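Field log, afternoon session.

UNIT: design team B
ACTIVITY: writing a sequence onto a fixed backbone
BACKBONE:
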């Protein structure tokens, strides 16, 4: 029996009519893009269920946890250390949004030429359609790109629980010291929010939970490197997106169960693609739920995505935290080292990213790279030009795509992707 979640959504202050409209679009798109795929692993049933209840059962779990005294922390960027949140028994969820909503209203607050991810996130706040945002006890905004840091000033006038985390832009000694100071400040803020003191044992436990989650995602990523491809790029993307919402331990178990099945599929040579299907690496801006536009176009054009060099993907999951230290300072240093290795385009210089893309392309046996940039995202758009040159010098064909969440450029997008896929055949 389906539960009626409307009373819970009303209690959270959602605009029920607008929220119903959002859920209906999301459900339709999921059916058209995901459920219509053939030969899916059975383990995707778990992720289909999570997606069908992403605003329902999961929110009920968060609300129940709050009633039992736990706190919910929403965040927009992979720089917020979930290990610290978990160490204080808080629950961390992602808030980035992948669909246009209330854009006319958003453009009263933000310039038109702001990236879709930022506009969408503010749109979800203005339209009151995101239960994760509305149930968060603390919302963390991270000073990454200029667009985000200025948008948080605006969001701060609408949300009285916004906590801004500063981040370095340069990976120098000073940059590292800033990140460590910010992680220590975050730890204190989380302790104040939850009333729980974080000691080394609690932090080790948080690190273990998140390391296990990342290990499971690394296992999934590695299985996609096999010539016998056991899962589509779209399905792998959903696992990467659910990473940000689900209970971390349950999610880890579901990903590992999926990987067990994918190993069997590989052994039995059950591939989701025909021999000779071009294998694509997608690199660039993160894709938040329900942003499935470009992956759907790529996989409908006769190619398959074998890896994502993205924060919703390899960049967000790569690297574990060393948990060998037994004291707080050592563990905090290990966290800083792990997060400072993220090669986001907000850093200058960000030279290690090109090496990571080449390495990932080689491991995943990609025939080509599609660089995905959201319109008006300067950090990724600027890196795309030298990256294209560097990748093509190594013999990897690349396509640069700049797009947003609208459907207006679908025709042009399909034409360009189809031409690129033809080139790779
Ligand atoms: S791309 Fe950069 S700013 Fe965006 S989530 Fe990743 S690390 Fe954060
Ligand atoms: S996509 Fe680009 S502009 Fe948008 S939030 Fe991320 S880094 Fe900033």
């Amino acid at each position: 029996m389906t539960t009626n979640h409307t009373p819970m959504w009303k209690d959270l202050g959602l605009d029920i009519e607008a929220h119903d409209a959002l859920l209906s679009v999301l459900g339709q798109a999921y059916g058209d893009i995901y459920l219509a795929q053939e030969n899916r692993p059975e383990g995707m049933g778990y992720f289909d269920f999570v997606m069908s209840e992403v605003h329902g059962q999961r929110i009920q779990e968060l609300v129940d946890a709050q009633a039992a005294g736990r706190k919910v922390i929403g965040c927009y960027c992979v720089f917020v250390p979930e290990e610290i949140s978990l160490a204080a028994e808080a629950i961390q969820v992602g808030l980035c949004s992948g669909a246009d909503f209330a854009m006319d209203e958003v453009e009263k607050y933000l310039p038109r030429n702001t990236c879709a991810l930022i506009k969408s996130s503010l749109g979800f706040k203005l339209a009151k359609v995101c239960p994760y945002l509305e149930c968060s006890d603390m919302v963390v905004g991270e000073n990454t790109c200029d667009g985000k840091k200025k948008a948080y000033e605006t969001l701060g006038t609408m949300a009285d629980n916004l906590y801004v985390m500063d981040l370095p832009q340069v990976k120098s000694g000073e940059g590292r010291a800033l990140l460590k100071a910010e992680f220590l400040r975050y730890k204190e803020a989380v302790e104040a929010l939850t009333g729980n003191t974080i000691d080394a044992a609690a932090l080790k436990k948080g690190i273990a939970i998140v390391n296990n989650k990342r290990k499971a995602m690394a296992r999934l990523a590695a299985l996609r490197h096999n010539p016998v491809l056991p899962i589509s790029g779209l399905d792998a993307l959903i696992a990467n997106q659910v990473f940000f919402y689900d209970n971390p331990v349950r999610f880890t178990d579901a990903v590992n169960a999926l990987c067990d099945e994918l190993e069997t599929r590989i052994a039995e040579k059950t591939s989701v693609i025909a021999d000779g299907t071009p294998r694509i690496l997608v690199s660039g801006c993160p894709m938040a739920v329900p942003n499935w536009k470009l992956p759907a176009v790529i996989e409908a054009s006769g190619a398959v995505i074998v890896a994502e060099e993205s924060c919703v993907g390899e960049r967000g999951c790569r690297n574990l935290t060393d948990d060998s230290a037994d004291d707080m300072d050592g563990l905090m240093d290990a966290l800083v080292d792990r997060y400072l290795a993220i090669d986001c385009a907000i850093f200058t210089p960000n030279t290690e990213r090109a090496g990571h893309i080449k390495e990932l392309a080689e491991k995943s046996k990609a025939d080509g790279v599609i660089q995905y940039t959201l319109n008006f995202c300067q950090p990724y758009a600027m890196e795309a030009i030298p990256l294209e040159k560097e990748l093509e010098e190594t013999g990897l064909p690349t396509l640069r795509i700049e797009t947003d969440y609208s459907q207006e450029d679908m025709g042009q997008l399909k034409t360009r992707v189809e031409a690129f896929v033809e080139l790779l055949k």
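LOG NOTE: The chain has a mean pLDDT of 97.
NEXT ACTIVITY: expression trials, pending approval
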